[in-house]
TrEMBL record:
PANTHER family: LANOSTEROL SYNTHASE, TERPENE CYCLASE/MUTASE FAMILY MEMBER
GO-annotated cellular components: lipid droplet
Name by which UniProt lists this protein: Terpene cyclase/mutase family member
Organism: Ostreococcus lucimarinus (strain CCE9901)
Domain spans labelled Squalene cyclase N-terminal: 69-363
């Protein structure tokens, strides 16, 4: 595998697919299974191409069967689909640094994990020696410095070719003083960067009155939960013990003549141009320099002690209410480290360690730390909807029953204690993105969970198992309704929008955009509206007035954020095809038809205008970053279709009734999809499709099955 990874990215991807296929075939033959169905040949699919005719329904059904056969083969015993949720390159180094600072590298990492982690890091070195923010991105100081440090901590020699090349990348661009603030923070914790070379993160912010728009309790939960332990660690200047390796790193990482000659005051605001997605507005310079002046008085003061105690109480609350999984990979490691600095022998540290495994995933490229503890519920809810859409549910009852069981078991049944005191939203009845243990409720995960549950509830119990009782579904409706924002009428992710967008001016993370508050999104709003409407259809008497009101105001919101070209910007996957799929389905759920709604017609026009010669659609991650449509292209500059984008576009078009106007674009799209299926029923894993904070990509490895099957299902049953 190594040799393959040293080749170009294109070849690298190709070998990943081959590896996955081989792995799957091996698993099936080990279980004594053979691939029973044959996928359609390219010949069969292309028949009728010239006349713009539909694909033979039998051919589509055979392809869908093969696809589900493959997909149910990788379903977990408990009913969910485990999949690689990697992508970001700045996560695992944090864990490795923390393990080192806690002097627990042996226990937390150990020989076997260490070897696989190193393999991963080396596999994702770019050709120029640097490392991106995510696996497909251009080299950044953040990715490169953290990877370099991680490789060194995992035992790689400074003069190894990999380290030498990576170090050269860093030094050529001004050295590690140019790393963005989160990188500076990790280096300071490790003891290879000075704390006064960092802009302050005072824990005293938590003591401010809540009515202030910049109270951290009003921030987006991910921002809040990361800066919470950071403020504690900053407040106590949590630093690992100096070792021979940290001394070596101090001399390796910097471009200055010596570590002692570094100007830490200028380093505070330095950031490599490769990393600068969100440059500081000037107001931050004023804020940071004022706080720098105050900091010496706060340090060691009684106020600091009280603030740190308050932060620590909140850290324990988060740990206990997520069963030590924590909301994400960044606060997981920071919280663990905070607990260790508070008391290295505490129960909390002991409980943290086994739950590190929840974030680790080993794949063909080595061991990685995932962007979450998985995407279990989210994928499972979509998978159910996709399989049911194929019309083949009767043949896959066992698979659906198990998925149903997973959905039932992962619904959150209670609120966290004293929600308001701890700045939490209610969770009773919600669904999480991953697991019940994690438990943070999310508007669109609740909605997709509810949609899947309602779909299953309308099917034969003997086939798919017992339906979730209606009072529990009503609890979910209650959460979804509570998420709607009074002002905008839209839905945000985990909580309501609690402050104004002006707070974004204080975003100190140069690499991420839109992180300060929980904004309303098209995805969350549309999914919530779809779920509420579906619930109302089945239970018209429950919360009828509230749902009707939500529908009216939510619909207005969707229209208000549609772009002039008819598209919607997707914030959580790539990009306009994703956003537009949600936009279209949201409008339709709330009453639009093609004939009566100009917004819907515009959206359809937009999608049709982006269909490629080859029949497919594709978008590059650059769409997210640049907020403008960017197609994926091959080496010769020809548009290259992507199964997942094609799936979203087809789903939106079919929902709008495109088949009644002109089915040709749909036939072409279906053909484009079918011609890419492997013989074992799987589809190729193409370029990365998930995103967060406009700039960092994340893998959704199940999407290639989910959205192809779903779109083919709708095509087969509504178009042909
Ligand atoms: C996710 C994953 C799921 C995603 C959807 C449900 C798909 C979306 O519709 C709403 C937002 C949400 C819940 C989401 C938000 C940001 C997350 C949590 C992530 C993309 C997974 C990882 C990311 C998190 C912020 C990564 C950790 C990095 C930091 C910068 C803190």
């Amino acid at each position: 595998m190594r040799a393959a990874y040293a080749k170009t990215r294109h070849e690298r991807k190709h070998s990943e697919d081959a590896f996955l296929r081989a792995q799957y075939d091996a698993r099936r033959s080990a279980r004594g299974l053979e691939t029973k169905t044959k996928t359609p040949s390219a010949m069969e699919i292309s028949r009728g191409e010239k006349e713009g005719k539909g694909v033979d329904g039998e051919v589509v059904r055979r392809a869908m069967r093969a696809g589900i056969e493959y997909y149910r083969g990788i379903q977990d015993e408990d009913g969910h689909w485990a999949s690689d949720y990697g992508g970001p390159m700045f996560l695992m180094p944090g864990l490795i640094i923390a393990a080192n600072v806690m002097e627990k590298s042996e226990e937390i990492i150990g020989e076997a994990r260490g070897r696989e982690m190193l393999r991963y890091l080396e596999n994702h070195l770019n050709e120029d020696g640097g490392v991106g923010l995510h696996i497909e991105g251009h080299s950044t100081m953040f990715g490169t410095v953290l990877t370099y440090v991680a490789m060194r901590l995992l035992g790689k020699a400074a003069d190894s070719p990999e380290c030498a090349k990576t170090r050269k990348w860093i030094i050529d661009r001004g050295g590690a003083t140019q790393v963005p603030s989160w990188g500076k923070f990790w280096l300071a914790v490790l003891g290879v960067y000075e704390w006064h070379g960092l802009n302050p993160i005072p824990p005293e912010c938590w003591l401010l009155p809540y009515w202030l728009p910049m109270h951290p309790g009003r921030f987006w939960c991910h921002c809040r939960m990361v800066y919470l332990p950071m403020s504690y660690l900053y407040g106590i200047r949590a630093t690992g013990k100096p070792t021979a390796l940290t001394a070596a790193l101090k001399s390796e990482l910097y471009a200055e003549a010596s570590y002692d000659s570094i100007n830490w005051n200028t380093a505070r605001n330095a950031c490599a141009k490769e990393d600068l997605y969100y440059p500081h507005p000037w107001i931050q310079d004023v804020v940071w320099s004022t706080l720098m002046k105050v900091e010496p008085f706060l340090m060691n003061s009684r106020v600091r002690k009280a603030a740190c105690e308050d932060a620590m109480r909140q850290i324990h609350y988060e740990d206990e209410n997520t069963r030590y999984v924590d909301i994400g990979p960044v606060n997981k490691v920071f919280n663990m480290l905070s607990c260790w600095f508070e008391d290295p022998d505490s129960e909390a540290v002991k409980k943290h360690i086994p739950r590190i495994a929840d974030y680790l995933w080993v794949a063909e490229d080595g061991m990685k730390m995932q962007g979450y503890n998985g995407s279990q519920l989210w994928d499972c809810a979509f998978s159910v909807q996709a399989i049911v859409a194929t019309g083949l549910a009767d043949e896959y009852g066992e698979c659906l029953r198990r998925a149903h069981d997973y959905i039932e078991k992962s619904q959150v049944r209670d609120d966290c204690p004293d929600v308001e005191k701890w700045y939490r939203h209610i969770s009773k009845g919600a669904w999480p993105f991953s697991t019940r243990d994690h438990g943070w409720p999310i508007s669109d995960c609740s909605s997709e969970g509810l949609k899947a549950a309602l779909t299953l509830a309308s099917m034969d119990e003997k086939l798919v198992g017992e339906a979730i009782p209606v009072d529990r579904l009503a609890d979910c409706v209650n959460v979804i309704l509570s998420y709607q924002n009074r002002g905008s009428g839209g839905w945000a992710t985990y909580e309501n929008t609690r402050s104004t967008k002006w707070v974004e001016l204080l975003n100190p993370a140069e690499t991420f955009g839109d992180i300060m508050i929980d904004y309303p999104y098209v995805e969350c709003s549309s999914a919530s509206l779809q779920a509420l409407c579906k619930f109302s259809e089945r239970y018209p008497d429950i919360r009828a007035k509230d749902i009707a009101h939500a529908k009216k105001t939510g619909r207005k919101f969707l229209k208000s954020i549609q772009r002039a070209d008819g598209s919607w910007y997707g914030s959580w996957a790539v990009c306009f095809t994703y956003g537009t799929w949600f936009g279209v389905l949201g409008l339709i759920a709330t009453g639009s038809t093609y004939e009566t709604c100009p917004s819907l017609r515009k959206a359809v026009e937009f999608l049709l205008s982006k269909q490629q010669e080859n029949g497919g659609w594709s978008e590059s991650y650059l769409s997210c970053e640049k907020k403008a449509y960017h197609e994926l292209r091959d080496k010769d500059g020809k548009p290259k279709p992507h199964l997942v984008n094609t799936g979203w576009a087809m789903l939106a078009l079919i929902a709008s009734g495109q088949q009644n106007r002109d089915a040709t674009p749909l036939h072409r799209a279906a053909r484009c999809m079918l011609s890419q299926q492997y013989e074992n029923g799987d589809f190729p894993q193409q370029s990365i499709m998930g995103v967060f904070n406009a700039n960092c990509m994340i893998s959704y490895s199940c999407y290639r099955s989910i959205f192809t099957l779903w779109a083919l299902g709708e095509y087969c049953n509504k178009v042909l």
